[in-house]
Amino acid sequence: MELQNEMLAKVDEVRKRKKVTYEEAKNALEQSGNDVLEAVIYLENLKDERFDEIRDYKDKTVENIRKTTSEMVDFSYKGQSVEAPLPVAVIGTLLLARKPKILLGAVGALFLLGIDVKVKSDRREIELTKPLRAKFFGMANAFSLSKVSVSRKMDDFTNKIHFKKEDKHEDDFGGYFSSDLY
Fold first, then answer.
1. Pairing state of beta strands 72-77 and 116-120?
2. From its phi and psi, is residue 129 left (phi > 0), alpha (psi between -120 and 50) or beta?
3. Which residue stretches of 128-175 are H helix?
4. pTM above 0.85, yes or no
5. Biggest alpha carbon distance in the chain?
6. Tens digits of per-residue pLDDT, 35-59?
């Protein structure tokens, strides 16, 4: 019993000097042969190792942020261009993902209106919308759809969409585009 009280007193002394749990203090005492001073030194060295790991992680994170902020997303339409840092574009997309209908509409608008989206970095430039648009029009040609017929179908489709809930017209989406929902 006295041995346990002595061990508890040593654990309390280590905990008083270093903010650690009982288990960590006990392990430190066991590693140092039940010497309180050696246990405190052991915990300090362990703490330095943890700070080194955290410092390395922080440095890698800062380096990655620097790399991504040098990358830009370029939105261009009819000769006009707007650039945004890649992290801003990604965060905006993630925020829009909370409202999938709006995200789908925005992506559809980018695609159908002919807005070109490019990711630019120091060394390369990646086209995002042009290859998809080319594949889409290739598939449309394979099904014998012309630009005029697709345009007419889109006009018919957009004429059916209403934006006010008070309108009693029937639409294909059951009022999803009503302003009251957003």
1. antiparallel
2. alpha
3. 129-142, 147-160
4. no
5. 94
6. 988 888 888 887 766 677 777 888 8
